[in-house]
Amino acid sequence: MTAAFALITSLLWGLADFGGGLLTRRIPALTVVLVSQLLAVGVLGTVVVATGAWTEAGPRLWFAAAAGLIGPAAMLSFYRALALGPMGVVAPIGALGGVAIPVGVGMAIGERPGLVQFAGIAVAVAGVVLASGPARGGAPVQRQTLVLTVGAAVGFGAVMALIAEASTTLTGLFLALFVQRVCNVLVGGTALWASVRRGGTALPAEGWGAVRAALPALAFVGLADVAANGTYNLAANSGPVTVAAVLASLYPVVTALAARGVLSERLRTVQATGAGLALVGTVLLAAAR
Predict the structure, then answer these.
(1) Does the structure show a pLDDT above 90 at 218?
(2) In the prediction, which pLDDT does 82 show?
(3) Which of 250, 247, 259 is nearest to 278 (CA)?
(4) Which residues make Cβ contacts (< 8 Å) with residue 50, sequence separation at least 6?
(5) From residue 282, how far is each of 47, 123, 226 by CA, in Å?
(6) Which residues contact 206 (CB under 8 A, 6 or more apart)?
(7) pLDDT tens-digit profile of 62-100?
(8) Is the pLDDT of residue 154 over 80?
(9) Which of 122, 203, 225, 255 is most buried per CB count within 10 Å?
(10) Which of 17, 38, 132 is nearest to 80 (CA)?
């Protein structure tokens, strides 16, 4: 069951990333983040009430609140990067943060990486360089896309580390995710309001009709992300965490395959190699945790 839950996690995260990146090509990224998370809040709120998770409120929820402050910035950066650059490059690099940041936190408190972790870091860095570098026959990935992707990776890793501290039980996880999403909505809504005040737009050219038409897709993005957190928790609690982490970290493959199948996206050889190395580095880091 560990492998099954972890692979479902990869599928859900990968499709959520693909859907979010695709939606931001038609709808402002802040609106995608806000609406998808608002829909997720409604479902999570129902789950919290139904399971009695609200009884587990305590000081640990401050970690969830912190994750909720960081999460919208990371999601916005990631979706914007997916809209600007090749998903097959952005997704694997963005996935590094979810593993590399917890490893970095461990080093900061005195842990030292083993040989496999060092290998993962080296392979991941090489992958980033190759995935972003120029090659004959095409233009390199734009610097803005790389900056957004790296920023998103750092944010994702921080969120995962904070959520890990926010709960110790499954119902506690529901409550932590609910608090995180509420903060996501508050921060995202404030950012959208500020953007509009500065002359930005909250709606696509087609207006509210386009957002209403996209509600099923927006709901899927928000709920798939929530469900992936749940299946990962089940995977980690039903067997070896190493197995769960390695298999769950394969979600960029789903994003890349979706981009290839739906968008017919093609990568230059050097970019495909770099993206593959970034994914391998992610797996090595996860396997050594």
Answers:
(1) yes
(2) 76
(3) 250
(4) none
(5) 32, 9, 22
(6) none
(7) 998 998 899 888 878 887 887 787 776 777 777 776 667
(8) yes
(9) 255
(10) 17
Whole-angstrom CA distances from 276 to 41, 169, 256, 282 are: 34, 35, 10, 10
> Which of 65-79, 108-122, 172-186 is the least confident region?
108-122
**Cα–Cα distances in angstroms (integers) from residue 60 to residues 57, 165, 168, 252, in the given order:** 8, 7, 9, 30
Q: Is 48 helix (H, G, I), strand (E, B) or coil?
A: helix
Q: Could you give the residue ranges of the DSSP H alpha helices within 109-142?
A: 115-132
3-state secondary structure at position 135: strand
Structural contact between residues 268 and 97, judged by C-beta atoms closer than 8 angstroms:
no
In whole angstroms, give the CA distance from residue 67 to residue 183: 8
Whether the predicted pLDDT of 226 surpasses 80: yes
Query: What is the amino acid identity at position 278?
Result: A
- Closest alpha carbon to 10 in 282, 272, 266: 282
Confirm if 2 and 238 have CB atoms less than 8 A apart: yes
Residue 136 has pLDDT above 50, yes or no: no
Beta bridge partners of 280: none
Positive or negative: CA dihedral 96, 171, 79, 105: negative
* DSSP-derived secondary structure letter, 142: P
Would the CA dihedral through 226, 167, 94, 199 be positive or negative?
Answer: positive
